[in-house]
Amino acid sequence: DIGVTGVQTCALPISYLNATNNQGMVIGYYVDVNYNAHAVTYSVASGAWSVLPDIPNYLSSEGYGINDAGAAVGYAGGYAPFDYVAWIWHPATASYSFFTVPGAEPAATYPYAITNKGQVVGGFGDVAFPIFLHGFLKEGGTYTTIDVPGAYDGNTTPVGINNSGMIAGWFFATRSEEHTSELQSRQYLVC
Against a cut of 0.70, is the pTM above it? Predict the structure, then answer.
């Protein structure tokens, strides 16, 4: 049996918790009454919510991955459709850094997970139209594109990575078929 613990919501209409670390810290976001998202962390031990600072010139910010040191990843959205910026939250300096995967459409990098080493995985839309998603692994300033062989138009999105480097995510085999797998160890080997 899996024990399920209730979480007190942050007293706002909508909240999402997306990932947890080994320290019992959870990352996600809540949506305010104006439908703008704000990245938050939740401490399982204390039951306390913390809102990450809003990013200037962006209406919304969503948190998706967190490592054991509290470094987190997500993206912020602006006023126009497809106006996004990928971010990494650095708790030691209480600051953000921003990045775009090389070859990505300027506002189409979506990070979803971060390891204790600072490796980040996620998806990005390329400059071809229509925008197709490819996976990426960011290690410092080095980026590796991840596409499942045979995936429909390269549509591959890693959504998780553990501290050993095993990556999990989803891809489309055909236009209407979505599959999930451990991208590293199943039939559709990626990295």
Answer: yes
Check residue 68 and give left, alpha or beta (phi > 0: left; psi -120 to 50: alpha).
alpha
Q: What is the DSSP string of 121-141?
A: EEEEEESSSS--EEEEEEETT
Closest by CA position to 36, among listed 64, 14, 9: 14
Which of 44, 92, 91 lies closest to 63 in space, CA to CA? 91
CA-CA distance, 174 to 167, in Å (whole number)? 21
Q: Tens-digit pLDDT profile for the chain (191 aa)?
A: 444 455 555 555 678 899 999 999 999 999 988 889 999 999 989 988 899 999 998 999 999 999 999 999 999 997 766 678 999 999 999 999 999 999 998 888 999 999 999 999 999 988 774 567 899 999 999 999 998 887 777 688 899 999 999 999 888 776 555 555 544 333 333 43
- Decide the pairing of beta strands 142-146 and 177-181: unpaired
Task: Provide CB contacts within 8 A for 64, sequence distance 6+.
Answer: 18, 19, 27, 73, 74, 75, 111, 112, 113, 122
